[in-house]
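<backbone_tokenisation>
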Amino acid sequence: MTTEAVLQAIRTSVQRDVGQRGLANLFQACPQDFALMCHSLAETPAGHLGIVTGFWIPGVGRGETDGPLGAVYLARTLPQLGITISLISDPFCRDALQVGLRLADCESTLVYLLGEALPAFTHLLAVERVGPSHTPNSVDPVTERVRFEQEVPPPHHNRCHSMRGIDITDQLRDAAALFESPGETITLGIGDGGNEIGMGKLPWSLIRAEITNGAWIACRVPTRYLLVAGISNWGAYALASGVAVLRGHTPAHDWYNKEFEYRILEAMVHQGALVDGVTGRAELSVDGLPFESYIQPLIEIRDVLRGVRG
């Protein structure tokens, strides 16, 4: 199998629409971006990746398990490839990130709060991080603006929304600004619903047509490279393995140890106060999937790499 075929197989492992959200056409919208983001990280000497995560669940007042778990996974794997990791989030998510890092023996990884002074990054990644919705000026003026103005009331322009269309802007610190003025930093996005930073690379009309509440929730903020995954944490799993393939690195056993990943999730829920973003409950699941179902793409990625190594 060629290297590019391996990357394709890894991407396929995480692009399954388990929640029946209407992701099939979003999966195919940027087919080369996963390989390009892996190459960009792998081919950057002394890479420093800033990871922005944390999604507020309205009605519960806590962060969700999708996003932070993937961020901690990247923090415990990519440094083995020589890539420095920093995590960036809101106060409501900091404890969970620190709990996960401690259990993963990654306490040297710095956790910044949005709004604080940040170091210079070679790459900036949003993992399941909601971003502001479109405005009349951000949609295509010829093919989309009239319909947008008909369907999206002005109070919902440039606002952060949950998948149910609830405005959660006031519960979050501004993360979009980091991606809108990145300077020389290469921006990456991983999302699974259309309302996350990075999804602005896709047309508003595509998300409107495919995703429930898509007209309102579609994020207007693009990233240079975008991976749409069935669950955003899966995208983090894929990214780490893709960079490892390109660096010629054989991952350690704990990269694919589902029991270890379960313990980290358990700690982040019970000690870090995360909840399942679909059910709103403090349970050991992600996006409504019980752990045994949720973890299968990570095992499939492991099997892809084992097949390559023989």
Remarks:
- Strands lie at 48-53, 56-57, 62-63, 84-89, 110-113, 123-127, 186-191, 225-228, 285-286, 289-290.
- The mean pLDDT is 96.
